[in-house]
From TrEMBL:
This is UPF0149 family protein. InterPro entries: YgfB-like, YgfB-like_sf. It comes from Alcanivorax quisquiliarum. Belongs to the UPF0149 family. Pfam families: UPF0149.
């Protein structure tokens, strides 16, 4: 059975709490995904160092926390580069109350923007392609998501739609940037010159 990010949420939350880290798993997964979209984060020590700096961790990650963080990184990398592009956001289980999941989605988006900003330091937003600017703008808007009032079925469906939108925007950022930067990327299609 393929591993999914869901199985990492609670164990990682426990590891972060025991390390005295106040950032949640969703936010750190967002940071990881944002870094990966800019081509950073694939080197284990580099990634763990960036996450330690982000969380202001005193000392090193525990072995269990390191293993969990690298495992969710690996899953994100596989999702970003696989044929099906099935990125799964690291959010609380569907059984958790809607408010917790909405808050985690906002944190995931905040983390993504931090990771993206770290990886693309020195680039101005205005220099990015319009589609990329729009995707980042959508993620920024979702990071400000309001907590639900009553957890109704309608709000549940709205959450699903917003989470899917965040996922698709993150995929778009990755495909626009990281895939275009690959040395084996095909050159942009131009006019065919016939001799």
């Amino acid at each position: 059975m393929p591993r999914t990010t869901a199985e990492f949420f609670e164990p990682l939350a426990d590891e972060l709490a025991s390390a005295g880290v106040r950032h949640g798993p969703a936010e750190l997964h967002g940071v990881i995904c944002g870094l990966l979209s800019t081509g950073l984060g694939s080197v284990d020590a580099e990634l763990l160092g960036m996450l330690a700096a982000h969380t202001e961790l005193a000392g090193q990650w525990s072995a269990d926390a390191s293993t969990a963080l690298l495992a969710v990184r690996d899953l994100a990398q596989e999702a970003y580069t696989g044929d099906d592009l099935e990125l799964v956001l690291l959010l609380p289980d569907d059984e958790e109350e809607l408010g917790s999941r909405v808050a985690a989605l906002g944190q995931w988006c905040e983390g993504f923007l931090v990771g993206f900003g770290t990886g693309s330091a020195g680039k101005r937003d205005a220099d990015l392609p319009p589609g990329l600017q729009e995707a980042l703008s959508d993620i920024a808007a979702i990071s400000q998501i309001a907590l639900p009032e009553d957890g109704s079925e309608e709000e549940e469906q709205m959450f699903e739609q917003v989470a899917e939108h965040a996922r698709m925007a993150a995929m778009m950022v990755f495909t626009e940037l990281a895939l275009a930067a690959r040395p084996d990327a095909p050159p942009p299609a131009g006019p065919v010159v016939k001799h």
